[in-house]
Design a protein that fits this description.
Layout (H helix, E strand, L loop, with lengths): L24 H6 L2 H63 L10
GO biological process, one term: intracellular protein transport
Subcellular location: Mitochondrion outer membrane
InterPro entries: Tom22, Tom22_pln
Length: 105
């Protein structure tokens, strides 16, 4: 029994030999000046983006800690003062004293 070739199916073209001195179109495109300048521009954009993201993170950290250290205690103290004023006003009204509020115009 002799081996018979298969009928039908997909036949791929034969590959070119590697010894061919003519470079392929893909090699020509990847080694072109436009592609190398595009790669360089992408690398530069990635570098700048990374630096910008890092400096933005540092600035956000500084702003957040400054807010916590300086403004949160101030907000808490203002809230305490407001509660104290409301308590004094409530005690004064219970004792029958006339309320002392800001003068009406």
């Amino acid at each position: 029994m002799a081996a018979q070739p298969k009928q039908g199916g997909v036949h791929l073209p034969a590959r070119r030999s590697a010894s061919n001195s003519d470079p392929s179109i893909l090699t020509k495109i990847t080694s072109s000046a436009i592609v190398s300048r595009g790669k360089q521009a992408a690398c530069d954009a990635a570098f700048v983006s990374k630096k910008l993201l890092r400096s933005t993170g540092k600035a956000a950290w500084i702003a957040g800690t400054t807010f916590l250290i300086l403004f949160v205690p101030l907000i808490i103290e203002m809230d305490r003062e407001q509660q104290f004023n409301e308590l004094e006003l409530q005690q004064a009204s219970l004792l029958g004293a006339p309320p002392t509020g800001p003068p009406h115009k």
